């Protein structure tokens, strides 16, 4: 790259970006993918987290604050999933339109029925989410509920594009409903399948497909698997006919491979969002690949 | 849906069966629905020093007496009680009350108590109250979020640990993809290195500029430059055989750089954090020394430079190791004073080497072992610290 090109590139980085009618800041890749599906060319979408990152440990980076400042609409899971970084963006991001309670802020978890609401709150039980398990994106029926809310919000914020958003929304709902029927038909063979998971981030998937989670590699949510806990799992899974040991792409394979080597149960990375594994680039592919990897043949 | 309906009918059943319904939170006015987020930090340590910590000095520097290593043996650090919440859609409020245990008594200090605006347009924001200044990088962090058990030597020597004071801050975030923040602050000027709240209680002010961004998905950075100007109005310190009093004014200029790396931007298992700052301070004015009944007076003129660089590497979840290097240099002109002061020791440059390892069982608990060789004075000091930092309650998000 020659000098003048470099200067131009640096100058461009400072320019305000305003190519589309709406700037959407998504906390997670699944909501970024959904906003692109529903907004089309009228929205420009930025995802704060990539598919390979652990959303629990993201930092309030300067780049995120700068992006947050630009956003017309911020869409996040909520339910305290982003409590380690989103509050800093809300306070430092200089964006009064994207504050909780304003049309420019959409919290997906408020539109779906929450599972795993803790009965008591004690951190000795691990890292609990008082409002329930926030990993809601892994049930396609939740995606449908959030899509309805998001279409409404896009229309509200950009009335000039109302027709476009409504059409795209209806088209997405039709395709998504058909896809869910297909996935449920494929998933029928998985009903009752026993799985061991690393973290309690698959609850909504298990609830949807009727999987049976017999154990977690983490002794308590958010606490690193320990040797003694893993050893105790050997007897837990013995004779249980467990089909898979499941982890997310960002989790260390150490614990699941240890258990796999001793029990013969295959360990598998399941995609938890768009972009988490190579062949998942859309929300549709997300559930296609989940069912592939769980062993449900394509029909 | 059917689950929800089942829940409703169950609730209806319970209500029907019990004439009173104290089990239902809904509709019961308890008065605590709007409680702010309250958290408590427990911080304590066990320290061993080869020198007597009561004689701790940094050659060539006059220090705020509060900025010293922890007492030897068992000691408590800052027990912080914080409360924060959105006041309404215009204001966010935060207070941090620090309990410090020293010499048989507990001192209570209001470290921060400020509001921050939420609703100003075009990237503007105003903060007011008592708060940690935005100058420098390390300055705005509370001790529980430090990567080492103690502050950088330059902060200890030049800013009394950290500069916090009563005042107001106006800042602006540029509408650019590259993070650019500009701001200015005005303070009473009652806390070190300022003193006495000169100019009718407006004795210090600052300007700062910060930029930051990402390089690929694995790297992110932030850099900044800040300037603090302050008045010194009757700052006093006891000497071995008398009392020193200073009146003057000074400036501190700080350059900061922080670089963070995590493979694929995923800090879950492995990450590296590098930070370095350079501080330059100049101060001059009139010095008076009272020894017994004899008073001597003269000009004082100090120039100080300080640098620290540190790197902290997490090699697996929870486990981190860190190294830090501190360097200071002073060039003081106090020839007119007849009595020796700590400012005389400017012919040697203080240095400190620190290593630490810490383990965080969850993000709420951390245990740390730290060792350092502190060459702040002629007598080299070896310091070993075993520390715990525990966080109770909802823990606020940390800034980058």
What value does the Rg of chain A take, in angstroms?
21 Å
Helix and strand pattern of chain A: HEHEHEHEHHEHEHEHEH
Which regions of chain A contain 5 or more consecutive residues with pLDDT less than 50?
Answer: none
The CATH superfamily of chain B turns out to be: Porin
Which fold does the CATH topology of chain B refer to?
Porin
Would you write up a description of this structure?
By secondary structure, chain A is an alpha/beta fold. Helices cover 41% and strands 12% of the residues of chain A. Chain A folds into two domains: 19-182, Rossmann fold; 188-293, Rossmann fold, CATH 3.40.50. Chain A is globular and about 60 Å long. Chain A starts with a helix and ends in a 6-residue tail after the last helix. With 400 residues, chain B is mainly β. Chain B has helices at 2-17, 153-158, 198-201, and strands spanning 37-49, 73-76, 78-86, 91-102, 105-117, 124-132, 164-173, 179-187, 204-215, 219-239, 242-261, 271-291, 294-316, 319-333, 351-362, 365-375, 381-392. Chain B has a 16-stranded antiparallel beta barrel. The longest helix of chain B is centred in the first third of the chain and has 16 residues, at 2-17. Mean pLDDT of chain B is 88; it is low at 10-27. The interface between A and B is large, with 47 and 51 residues.
SSE blueprint:
The complex is a heterodimer of chains A (about 300) and B (about 400).
Chain A: H1 3-14, E1 22-26, H2 29-39, E2 43-47, H3 62-70, E3 73-76, H4 86-92, E4 105-107, H5 140-157, H6 162-187, E5 194-197, H7 203-209, E6 212-216, H8 227-237, E7 242-247, H9 254-263, E8 267-269, H10 283-293
Parallel strand pairs in A: 1-2, 1-3, 3-4, 5-6, 5-7, 7-8
Helix pairs in contact in A: 2-5, 3-4, 5-6, 6-10, 8-9
Chain B: H1 2-17, E1 37-49, E2 73-76, E3 78-86, E4 91-102, E5 105-117, E6 124-132, H2 153-158, E7 164-173, E8 179-187, H3 198-201, E9 204-215, E10 219-239, E11 242-261, E12 271-291, E13 294-316, E14 319-333, E15 351-362, E16 365-375, E17 381-392
Antiparallel strand pairs in B: 1-2, 1-3, 1-17, 3-4, 4-5, 5-6, 6-7, 7-8, 8-9, 9-10, 10-11, 11-12, 12-13, 13-14, 14-15, 15-16, 16-17
């Amino acid at each position: 790259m020659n000098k003048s090109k470099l200067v131009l590139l640096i100058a461009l980085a400072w320019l305000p970006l305003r190519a589309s009618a709406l700037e959407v800041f998504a906390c997670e890749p699944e909501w970024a993918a959904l906003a692109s599906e529903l907004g089309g060319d009228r929205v420009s979408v930025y995802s704060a987290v990539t598919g390979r990152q652990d959303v629990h440990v993201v930092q309030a980076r300067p780049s995120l604050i700068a992006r947050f400042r630009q956003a017309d609409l911020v869409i996040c899971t909520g339910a305290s999933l982003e409590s380690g970084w989103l509050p800093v963006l809300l306070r430092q991001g200089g964006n009064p339109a994207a504050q909780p309670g304003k049309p420019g802020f959409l919290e997906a978890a408020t539109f779906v029925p929450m599972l795993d609401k803790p009965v008591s709150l004690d951190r000795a039980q691990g890292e609990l989410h008082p409002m329930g398990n926030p990993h809601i994106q892994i049930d396609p029926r939740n995606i449908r509920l959030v899509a309805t809310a998001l279409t409404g919000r896009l229309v509200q914020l950009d009335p000039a594009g109302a027709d476009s958003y409504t059409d795209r929304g209806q088209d997405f709902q039709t395709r998504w409903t058909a896809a869910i029927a297909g996935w449920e038909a494929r998933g029928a063979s998985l009903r009752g399948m026993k799985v061991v998971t690393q973290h309690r981030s698959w609850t909504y998937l298990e609830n949807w497909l009727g999987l049976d989670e017999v154990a977690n590699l983490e002794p308590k949510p958010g606490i690193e698997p320990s040797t003694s806990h893993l050893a105790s799992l050997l007897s837990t899974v013995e004779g249980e006919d467990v089909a898979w040991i499941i982890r997310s792409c960002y989790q260390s394979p150490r614990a699941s491979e240890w258990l796999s080597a001793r029990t013969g149960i295959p360990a598998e990375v399941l995609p938890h969002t768009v972009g988490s594994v190579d062949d998942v680039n859309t929300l549709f592919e997300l559930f296609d690949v989940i069912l592939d990897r769980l062993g449900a043949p394509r029909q | 849906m059917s689950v929800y309906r089942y829940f409703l009918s169950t609730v209806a059943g319970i209500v029907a069966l019990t004439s009173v319904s104290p089990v239902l939170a809904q509709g019961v006015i308890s008065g605590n629905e709007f409680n702010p987020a309250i958290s408590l930090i427990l911080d304590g340590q066990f320290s061993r020093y080869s020198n007597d910590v009561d004689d701790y000095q940094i050659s060539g520097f006059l220090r705020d007496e509060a900025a010293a290593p922890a007492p030897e043996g068992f000691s408590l650090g800052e027990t912080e009680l914080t409360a924060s919440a959105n006041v309404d859609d215009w204001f966010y409020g935060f207070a941090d009350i620090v309990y410090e245990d020293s010499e048989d008594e507990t001192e209570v200090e209001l470290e921060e108590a400020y509001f921050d605006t939420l609703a100003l347009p075009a990237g503007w924001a105003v903060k007011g109250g008592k708060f940690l200044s935005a100058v420098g990088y390390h300055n705005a962090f509370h001790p529980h979020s430090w990567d080492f058990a103690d502050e950088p030597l330059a902060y200890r020597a030049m800013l009394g640990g950290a500069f916090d004071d009563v005042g107001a801050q106006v800042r602006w975030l540029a509408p650019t993809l590259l993070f650019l923040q500009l701001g200015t602050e005005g303070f009473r000027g009652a806390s070190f290195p300022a003193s006495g709240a000169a100019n009718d209680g407006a004795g210090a002010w600052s300007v700062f500029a910060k930029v930051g961004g990402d390089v690929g998905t694995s790297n992110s950075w932030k850099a900044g430059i800040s300037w603090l100007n302050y008045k010194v109005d009757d700052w006093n310190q006891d000497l071995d055989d008398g009392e020193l009093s200073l009146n003057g004014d000074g400036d501190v200029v700080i350059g900061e750089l922080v670089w963070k790396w995590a493979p694929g931007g995923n800090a879950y298992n492995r990450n590296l954090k590098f930070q370095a700052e350079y501080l330059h301070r100049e101060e001059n004015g009139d010095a008076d020394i009272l020894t017994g009944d004899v008073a001597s007076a003269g000009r004082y003129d100090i120039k100080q430079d300080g640098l620290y660089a540190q790197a902290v590497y997490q090699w697996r979840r929870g486990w981190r190791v860190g190294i830090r290097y501190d360097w200071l240099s002073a060039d003081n002109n106090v020839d007119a004073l007849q009595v020796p002061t700590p400012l005389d020791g400017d012919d040697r440059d203080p240095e400190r080497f620190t290593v630490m390892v810490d383990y965080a069982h969850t993000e709420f608990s951390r245990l740390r072992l730290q060792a350092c060789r502190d060459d702040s004075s002629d007598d080299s000091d070896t310091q070993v610290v075993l520390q715990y930092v525990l966080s109770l309650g909802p823990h606020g998000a940390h800034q980058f």
